[in-house]
Design brief:
The complex is a heterotrimer of chains A (about 325), B (about 500) and C (about 120). With about 325 residues, chain A is mainly alpha-helical. Chain A has helices spanning about 1-20, 25-45, 50-75, 85-105, 120-130, 140-145, 150-170, 195-220, 225-245, 245-255, 255-280, 295-325, and strands at about 175, 180-185. Chain A has 2 domains: about 1-80, Four Helix Bundle (Hemerythrin (Met), subunit A) (Up-down Bundle), CATH 1.20.120.1200; about 140-330, no CATH class. In chain A, a hairpin with a 5-residue loop joins β1 and β2 (about 180-185). A two-stranded antiparallel sheet of chain B has the order 1-2. Chain B is globular and about 70 Å long. Helices cover about 75% and strands about 0% of the residues of chain B. Chain B has a domain at about 285-500. Chain B is an all-alpha fold and about 500 residues long. Classes of the chains: A mainly alpha (about 325), B mainly alpha (about 500), C mainly alpha (about 120). At the A-C interface, α1, α2, α3, α4 and α5 of A face α2, α3 and α4 of C.
Chain lengths: ~325, ~500, ~120
C-alpha cells in the first residue's frame, strides 16, 4: 500500500516539475511550485520525516508561495515565450545527471536497516538521547542540543534574510536620486472590504491559529514541531490579518519598531543561552550546566532557544510579508 | 603570554565566531550610522585580537578541538583549528578590521542614507559566516556558515545600486550561481554521509580511506569540487565574479575580494588534503593531470581579458580570477612547497588586492568613476593614492620586495621541484600579462595630463591610512617573509600529514 | 532489474534534481529561475530523507511501542536546509522586485540588452 502511494507521489512530482518547464504563465509556475512542495511534504511523511513534512508544508508550500506571489503582483505575470531550446543547459544537466546515476551504483539499497548511515553516529542518538537529553522527539534533541550550533546558524540565516529584505525593499523612506526623501505611503484596506464572509471567518480563525502556534512551540519536545514551525504559523495569523483587513491596520497591530526589535531579540536569546552556559562552566551551548540536574538543564536550555527561534522566525516572516505588501507597484 | 582572562582563553575558538554573531543583531538596533560604525569597528578589532590569540595558541600547543554543547565528536559539532585555519582566521579578521575603518567614508559616499546603518549589520554577518566556515570541523555546519556569508554578500553587493543599477543584476546572478554551488556542495556531502554515516571532517577522512573504489564517494567528490569551484570563482565557473566586484560599493569589494574567495580556497585545501587525502586523489585519481592544465588556463585567460578592460575595478576583478589560478596551481603539485605557495599566496593576495580596491575607492570618491579616463593625470593630483596603487600593482606582477614576489618564487620552486620547468616558464610568462594591464593604468595616471579644469584633491586620511596599512603590509612581508613563511610552511607540512 | 527497483527512489530523485537544475540554467525569466532553484533544492531534500528511511521503521519519536526508528539526523539537516532555502527565496524575490523597478523587465536577456548600450 505505502509502496503504491510512494510511487504515485513521485510520479506526480515528476509531472508537476515537467509542467513547470513548459508553463509560461508565471502565476501557474508559482502555484505548481507550491503543489510540488506539498507533494514532497507527503513524501516526507511516508519516509517517516514528520518534522520535515510539517516545515516543508508551512514554508515551501506556504510562505515561499506567498512571497513569490507578492513578487508577481509587483512585476509581471507572464514569461516571454522563446522557441529555441538551448543546447548547453541540456548538456550540463545530462552531465550532472549521469554523475548522479553513476553514484547510485555505489549506494546501499533504499530502506536497508544495515546501511552505513544508520550506524556509527545515528544509533547513539536513537539509543541514548532519551537518557542524555530527556525528550521523546529525537529530532528536537539533535536539532536543539547535539547539533544546536547548526540551529544557531540557521536562526542567523533567517535574521540575515530579514535584514536583507528590509534593506532592499522595506525601508519606509526612500532617498531619491536627487537626494530628496520621499515617504512611501502605506496601502490602506485591500479590496477585501466588501467580503464580509472572509472578514468574519478570519476573525474567528486568527485566535485559533495563534493558539495552535503556541501549542506547536511548546509541544515540539514531544511531537513534531518546535520554534521554527511555530514562528511560521504565528506569522501566518498576522499575514491573514493583513490580507483581509489591510496592511495599514496590520502595521498598527505590530509596529515596525517592535518587529525590528524582536528579530534581533530571538537571535540574542539563543546566543545568550550559549554565553550563559560558558559562564556557568560548560562549553558553548552546553545546557547541562544550566541546572543542577543535567536533563533539567537540557530542558531549560531547549525551551529557551526554541523560544528564541520562534521569536526571530515569526518577526522575520511578518517583516518579509509587510516589506513586499507595502511596496507600491511602480508605473512602467 | 596570555591576552585574555582564563575563561576567554579556554573558549577562544567559539568566541571568535560568537562575538560578531551577537554583535550583528545588537548593531541592527542602532539607528545612527556613526554609532553603528564605531560599534562594528570595535567588534572587528576584538575579533582580530581573538584570532591572533588563537594563532598563538595553535602555534605553541598544537591544534584546538572545541566541542559545541559539550557533545563529543562526531555526535556533536566540533570546531577544529590547526595552523592552516588559524592563519586564515587571522587573514580574514585582519582584513575585516582594516576595511571596517575604511568603510565609514566609503559607505557615506556610496550608499543611500537609510541603508547605511544596515551595512554594518550585514558586514558583521558576513564576517561571522566567513570565520565560521574557516573554524568548523563539521561538513554540514560549514554549509550553514557558508550561507550566512553568501546571503549577506548578496545584499552587500546590491547596495551598489545607488550608483549603478547593474549592482542588482550582479547580486542576482551571484545569488543564483552561489545557490547552485551550495546545493551541489550539499549533494556531495549527502553522498559522502550516505556511505560513511558521519559529517565530521576528521571522522570522514578515517572512514573514507577504505572506500576508494566506491562510485558514490567519487560522485560526492565531484559535486563538492564543482560546488566549491563555483563559490571560489575558479575559471570557467567565475562568471558571477567580475560584475559582482565591479558594481559593489568599494568597501564591499575590498572586503570580499580579500576574504571570501580566500576562505573558499581554504575549504578546497581542507577537502582535498584532510578529508580525501593525497593518496586517494593524486595517486588513485591522478587529479593533478586535470588540475594542472585547468590552473594554467585559469592563470592566462582571465589575465588576457583583464588587459582589454576599461573599467579598472573590472580589470582587477579579472586579475583576481587569474590569481585563483595561481592558488590552484600551487596545490595541484600536491607537494609541501606547492601547498606552501598556495597558503602564502592566500595572505599575500589578500593584502595586495584589499589595498588595490581601497585605492580605487579613493579614486571613485574624488573623480566619480573608475574607468581608465578617470585616472588621467592622477599621479600628480593624488600622489599617495596612486603610489599605493602602483605598489599593489607591482605586487600583482611579482616584483621583488613585494609579497607577490614571494608567492611567485615559491610557485616556481614547487614547479622545478616537480621537474616541470615549462610550468615555471608559464608562471613567468603570465606575470608579463600583469605587467601589461598594470602599465596601462600607470601610463594614463603618470604620463597623461590631467583633464582640463578638473581640480582633484588627495583622498582623505580615512581612506589613505587603511589603504597604506595593507599596501605597507604587502611591502613589509615582501622584504621580511620569515614569519608568514614559517606559518604557511608548517601549516602546509601539517596538512600534508608530515607533522609540523 | 533488481538494481533499478531497490534504487527506484534515488533514481526518481535524480530525475527531479535534473529537471530543477534545468529550469534554473535554461530559463531567462528571473521568477522561473527562482522556482526552479527551489525545485532543485526540494529534490535534494528528498535525497537526504530517502537515505534516512528504514523500511519497517517509524518516525523518530521515542515510544515504548516501537523499536525501529528511521534515521533522525537527515531530518535535522534538512530542517536547516529548508530554512536556508526560504531565506534565499526571500532575498531573490526582493532583488527581482528591485530589478523590475530599475529595468521594467524580469527577462534576463532584455536586461542585459538594456545594459549593453547603457
Amino acid at each position: 500500500m505505502t509502496e503504491a502511494v510512494n510511487t504515485l507521489l513521485l510520479l506526480f512530482m515528476c509531472v508537476t516539475a515537467l509542467t513547470i518547464v513548459r508553463q509560461h504563465n508565471l502565476f501557474a509556475v508559482v502555484m505548481l511550485g507550491s503543489v510540488f512542495s506539498l507533494l514532497s511534504a507527503g513524501m516526507f511523511v511516508l519516509l517517516d520525516a514528520v518534522d520535515v513534512a510539517f516545515t516543508e508544508a508551512a514554508v515551501g508550500a506556504g510562505i515561499s508561495t506567498i512571497l513569490m506571489l507578492g513578487v508577481l503582483s509587483l512585476t509581471n505575470s507572464r514569461e516571454r515565450i522563446t522557441f529555441s531550446t538551448p543546447i548547453f543547459p541540456i548538456v550540463l544537466v545530462m552531465l550532472a545527471g549521469s554523475v548522479l546515476i553513476f553514484s547510485a551504483l555505489g549506494m546501499p539499497e533504499f530502506g536497508a536497516a544495515d546501511a552505513p548511515i544508520h550506524g556509527h553516529v545515528a544509533d547513539r542518538y536513537i539509543e541514548k538521547s532519551g537518557a542524555e537529553v530527556g525528550l521523546p522527539n529525537i529530532v528536537t534533541s539533535i536539532l536543539a542540543s547535539y547539533r544546536g550550533f547548526d540551529t544557531l546558524g540557521e536562526v542567523t540565516v533567517i535574521f540575515t534574510a530579514g535584514i536583507g529584505v528590509m534593506v532592499l525593499l522595506g525601508l519606509r523612506r526612500r532617498t531619491a536620486q536627487d537626494g530628496s526623501v520621499e515617504e512611501l505611503p502605506l496601502p490602506g484596506e485591500g479590496n477585501m472590504r466588501h467580503h464580509s464572509v472572509l472578514r468574519v471567518t478570519a476573525k474567528l480563525l486568527i485566535p485559533f491559529i495563534m493558539l495552535f502556534a503556541l501549542y506547536v512551540q511548546f509541544h515540539g519536545d514531544f511531537g513534531p514541531g518546535g520554534g521554527f514551525q511555530a514562528g511560521v504559523i504565528f506569522a501566518a495569523a498576522f499575514i491573514l490579518y493583513g490580507l483581509v483587513f489591510g496592511i495599514k491596520n496590520a502595521v498598527a497591530v505590530v509596529p515596525e519598531g517592535v518587529t525590528r526589535f524582536l528579530i534581533a531579540a530571538g537571535v540574542l536569546l539563543y546566543a545568550g543561552v550559549g554565553v550563559a552556559s560558558l559562564l556557568m562552566g560548560g562549553n558553548y551551548l552546553d545546557y547541562s550546566v544550566l541546572a543542577h540536574e543535567p536533563t533539567h538543564g537540557q530542558h531549560l536550555g531547549i525551551l529557551l532557544i526554541e523560544f528564541g527561534v520562534g521569536t526571530t522566525v515569526a518577526a522575520v516572516m511578518i517583516t518579509l510579508f509587510f516589506s513586499f505588501a507595502r511596496r507600491t507597484r511602480k508605473k512602467t | 603570554m596570555t591576552l585574555f582572562p582564563a575563561v576567554v582563553e579556554a573558549h577562544l575558538a567559539v568566541l571568535l565566531i560568537v562575538v560578531p554573531l551577537i554583535a550583528a543583531p545588537l548593531c541592527s538596533l542602532l539607528r545612527r550610522e556613526s554609532l553603528a560604525w564605531i560599534f562594528a569597528a570595535a567588534v572587528s578589532v576584538v575579533c582580530l585580537a581573538l584570532a591572533v590569540a588563537i594563532l598563538g595558541q595553535v602555534m605553541a600547543n598544537g591544534p584546538i578541538a572545541y566541542e559545541m554543547g559539550g557533545w563529543a565528536s562526531p555526535w556533536g559539532i566540533e570546531f577544529r583549528i590547526d595552523r592552516l585555519n588559524a592563519f586564515v582566521l587571522v587573514i580574514v579578521s585582519a582584513i575585516a578590521a582594516v576595511v571596517m575603518w575604511y568603510a565609514h567614508g566609503s559607505v557615506r559616499a556610496e550608499i543611500g542614507g537609510d541603508q547605511q546603518p544596515h551595512y554594518y549589520t550585514l558586514y558583521l554577518l558576513c564576517l561571522t559566516g566567513l570565520l565560521g566556515v574557516t573554524a568548523t570541523g563539521d561538513a554540514f555546519n560549514l554549509f550553514v556558515f557558508l550561507e550566512i556569508s553568501s546571503l549577506s554578500s548578496y545584499v552587500l553587493i546590491s547596495l551598489g545600486a545607488g550608483r549603478d543599477r547593474r549592482a542588482l543584476t550582479a547580486a542576482f546572478t551571484y545569488l543564483v550561481m552561489g545557490t547552485i554551488g551550495a546545493t551541489f556542495y550539499v549533494i556531495g556531502i549527502g553522498l559522502l554521509y550516505m556511505v560513511t554515516g558521519t559529517l565530521n571532517m576528521a571522522d570522514l577522512a578515517v572512514r573514507l580511506a577504505p572506500l576508494a573504489d566506491n562510485t558514490t564517494v567519487l560522485a560526492g567528490f565531484a559535486f563538492i569540487m564543482v560546488g566549491l569551484s563555483l563559490k571560489l570563482a575558479l575559471f570557467p565557473l567565475h562568471l558571477w565574479l567580475p560584475n559582482a566586484y565591479t558594481y559593489a560599493p568599494s568597501a564591499v569589494t575590498a572586503f570580499l575580494a580579500a576574504t571570501a574567495t580566500k576562505v573558499a580556497v581554504y575549504v578546497l585545501l581542507r577537502f582535498l588534503f584532510t578529508v580525501f587525502g593525497t593518496d586517494y586523489l593524486f595517486e588513485e585519481l591522478t587529479l593533478n593531470g586535470f588540475l594542472l592544465p585547468l590552473a594554467v588556463i585559469a592563470m592566462f585567460i582571465p589575465s588576457l581579458v583583464a588587459i582589454f578592460q576599461t573599467n579598472i575595478k573590472r580589470m582587477l576583478a579579472y586579475s583576481s580570477v587569474a590569481q585563483l589560478g595561481y592558488m590552484v596551481l600551487g596545490l595541484s603539485f600536491a607537494s609541501i612547497t606547492g601547498v606552501t605557495a598556495t597558503v602564502i599566496h592566500l595572505f599575500n593576495h589578500a593584502v595586495t588586492k584589499g589595498g588595490l580596491f581601497m585605492a580605487l575607492g579613493a579614486v571613485l570618491l574624488r573623480t566619480g568613476g573608475v574607468s581608465l579616463q578617470n585616472m588621467a593625470g592622477l599621479g600628480r593630483q593624488m600622489p599617495l593614492t596612486m603610489a599605493a596603487f602602483v605598489v599593489g600593482g607591482f605586487s600583482l606582477i611579482g616584483v621583488p620586495t613585494t609579497v607577490g614576489f614571494i608567492s611567485k618564487w615559491y610557485l616556481i620552486l614547487a614547479a622545478l621541484e616537480d621537474g616541470r620547468w615549462p610550468i615555471a616558464f608559464l608562471i613567468l610568462a603570465s606575470s608579463l600579462l600583469a605587467v601589461i594591464y598594470i602599465w596601462r593604468v600607470v601610463e594614463v595616471a603618470y604620463f597623461q595630463p590631467a583633464l582640463e579644469g578638473r581640480k582633484i584633491e588627495e583622498a582623505p586620511l580615512s581612506y589613505l591610512i587603511p589603504t597604506w596599512l595593507l599596501i605597507g603590509a604587502s611591502l613589509y612581508f615582501g622584504v621580511d617573509a620569515t614569519y608568514t613563511l614559517e606559518v604557511a610552511g608548517s601549516a602546509a607540512a601539517h596538512l600534508m600529514g608530515n607533522g609540523g | 532489474m533488481t538494481e533499478v527497483m531497490s534504487h527506484f527512489n534515488y533514481l526518481v530523485v535524480v530525475v527531479l534534481m535534473m529537471i530543477g537544475f534545468y529550469i534554473v540554467i535554461s530559463g531567462s525569466n528571473l521568477v522561473k529561475k527562482v522556482v526552479g532553484l527551489s525545485i532543485f533544492q526540494v529534490s535534494v531534500f528528498l535525497l537526504y530523507i530517502s537515505m534516512g528511511k528504514i523500511i519497517g521503521g517509524t518516525a523518530p519519536i521515542l515510544d515504548d511501542r516501537f523499536t525501529v526508528y528511521s534515521n533522525p539526523l537527515p531530518h535535522v539537516l534538512i530542517l536547516t536546509a529548508i530554512v536556508v532555502g526560504v531565506a534565499t527565496t526571500a532575498l531573490a524575490g526582493a532583488l527581482i522586485v528591485r530589478i523590475n523597478e530599475a529595468y521594467g523587465s524580469i527577462e534576463e536577456d532584455e536586461i542585459y540588452r538594456q545594459d549593453g548600450d547603457a
